[in-house]
Amino acid sequence: MSRPRYYITTPIYYVNDLPHIGHAYTTIACDVMARFKRLDGYDVMFLTGTDEHGQKVETAAGNAGLDPRTFTDQVSRNFRDLLPMLDIGNDDFIRTTEDRHRISVQEVWRRLVARGHIYLGKYAGWYSVRDEAYFADSELVDGQAPTGAPVEWVEEPSYFFDLSKWQEPLLRLYEENPDFIAPRSRRNEVVSFVSGGLRDLSVSRTSFRWGVPVPDDDDHIMYVWLDALTNYITATGFPDTGCERYRQFWPADLHMVGKDIVRFHAVYWPAFLMAADLPVPKRVFAHGWWTNEGQKISKSLGNVIDPLDLVETYGLDQMRYFLMREVPFGNDGDFSQGSMIGRINNDLANDFGNLAQRVLSFVARHGEGRVPDPGPLAPPDLALLEQADCLLDALRKEYANQAFNRALERVWEVVGAANRYVDEQAPWQLRRSDPARMATVLYTLMETVRHLAILMQPVVPGSAGRMLDQLGIAADAREFSSIGADHRLVAGTPLPAPSPVFPRFRTDG
Ligand code: MSP
Question: By CB atoms within 10 Å of each CB, which of 190, 252, 287, 401 scores lowest?
């Protein structure tokens, strides 16, 4: 039987800049989601990559004294090299400068032309290079783009896409698919934007060269957002719609984006696709933005957070956990050293790490380093095991909504219950009085930790893997299909020597 499929994408990143916490955040969130789905038996395609065309990148290349191709080859590498350092398990990495992509974008263009959705005209209006976006006079705030980016006046021949005709189909799409845009606040924003009426969109420029030429009129370079958004179908093999990957994975299940680029993904992209007679993605989730110790992150303030610095200082899984746990996914979040250390020491070291360590070191010392014999289970044992067994169902619901923080809260409810159970059952007191009961308690705890470690793999893959090693769990018994009573630990299985998985973060040097 073929497995269900799941296709998830990150935005493709502009290469004018070095990767920072914002890029790492989206990519890690997608990785967590992709890992969850893989462990849950899905055939997953997880795509990330770089957005290399447009005026912004052309200018950055010029500033670096390089031609755009040499420049993009160099900087795209920074993004690609970052992935293994963040333990990202993407299946493909797309660059918009690749041939496969040019072919795909030009085919989308031809489809739009063939269906009568593109016409030649003249653009006269504002353009923000930083946002790579057009703005009407009425949208400017104190002479700048709403994002605060400078705008320039552009007047040039341009092809237009008849976006104004797509207002009704888009509103219908949102209406019929209430989960198409999440969270709800973003959905409301988009619906009210589209309800206010749409203007036709300029989709080509003649004043710079770095991009995909318009088929049959190469004085024009395609608008970088039309180019960039198309990456999501390029990677499935488009224009070959007979391609197996295309048939299996398109439409995408989830485009994960930041809140600043939701309009491009939830308005322009589905409109382009509908106009080209192609299926639209199932969902766009817009996450919030991080600040640094309460301040907006910007190069000019010099407070940009390098994700590799965080990895080095706090540890990779610690950072991944923090980013997923600290704020409700979709809201803005503040990075601070204090909150990071709090999460590491309280959640990871004290609650989860200590639970595993207490149990495993006790078994190593007083249980001959083997999985103890469960014997007959008493009501408190059964209650804890049932909580562990049921956790997967709860997590599926939270992950389906990308509620990563709530999923982690659910996990911690079981961590808390297990810690209370240790205190109540006090296995160290049973060692002499009732060794059989001690074995039952330890077995129950090991089973609980097995569940927790399996279910924590998406967020902290390395650490959860080490925990599973210490529980003697084989590599092929770590998927979610091993959750529950049918796959209990086997008494007598020898265990490796335990060592702590989540150390405390010490500030005293
Ligand atoms: N190239 C476009 C996307 C094209 S997708 C077809 C782009 N690239 S970007 O490199 O500027 O931004 C990538 C992502 O980083 C966006 O989703 C943006 O929201 C995110 N972030 C940038 N700064 C951020 C924070 N401070 N915090 C969280 N995410 C942030 O836009």
Answer: 401
The answer, yes or no, to whether any atom of ligand 1 lies below 6 A from the CB of 349, is: no
* Closest-lying ligand 1 atom to the alpha carbon of residue 51: 1
| Closest Cα to atom 29 of ligand 1 | 22
What pLDDT band is residue 302 in, cutting at 50, 70 and 90? confident
Q: Is the CB of 260 within 6 Å of ligand 1? A: yes
Per DSSP bridges, beta strands 201-202 and 152-161 are antiparallel
Q: How much distance in Å is there from the Cα of 19 to the middle of ligand 1?
A: 10
Amino acid present at 380: P
Q: Is pTM, for the whole model, over 0.85?
A: yes
User: What residue's CA is closest to ligand 1, atom 18?
Assistant: 258
| Angle (deg, nearest 10), helices 379-400 and 435-456 | 0
Exposure string over 407-417, b if 16+ CB within 10 A, otherwise e: bbebbbebbee
Q: Which residues pair with 287 in a beta bridge?
A: 258
The tens digit of pLDDT for each residue in 170-225 reads 999 999 999 999 999 999 999 999 999 999 999 999 988 999 999 999 999 999 99
Distance 258 CA to ligand 1 centre (A): 6
- Long-range own/partner contacts, residues 127-136 (CB < 8 A, 24 or more apart): 127/151, 127/152, 127/153, 127/154, 128/152, 129/55, 129/56, 129/59, 130/56, 132/54, 132/55, 132/56, 132/224, 132/225, 133/225, 134/201, 134/202, 136/199
Q: Whose CA is closest to 197, among 119, 130, 139? A: 139
Taking the centre of ligand 1 as the mean of its atom positions, its distance from the CA of residue 405, in whole angstroms, is 21
CA distance 10 to 32: 12
Q: How far does Cα 217 stand from its chain's mean position? A: 38
The answer to whether the beta carbons of residues 8 and 47 sit under 8 Å apart is: yes
Residue 92 has pLDDT above 80, yes or no: yes
Distance from C-alpha of 261 to C-alpha of 269, rounded to nearest angstrom: 11
Q: Cα(75)–Cα(248) distance, rounded to whole angstroms?
A: 32
Q: What is the pLDDT of residues 405-463, one digit of tens each?
A: 999 999 999 999 999 999 999 999 999 999 999 999 999 999 999 999 999 999 999 99
Token pair 């409700």 is found at 328
β-sheet with 213-214: strand ranges across = 204-205, 217-222, 213-214
96 phi, psi to nearest 5 deg: -70, -10
pLDDT digits (tens, 9 = 90+) for 356-379: 999 999 999 988 899 999 999 999
- Residue 240's closest CA among 228, 229, 249? 249
Of 212, 217, 244, whose CA–CA distance to 228 is shortest? Answer: 212
Per DSSP, 490 falls in state P
Nearest CA to ligand 1 atom 5: 11
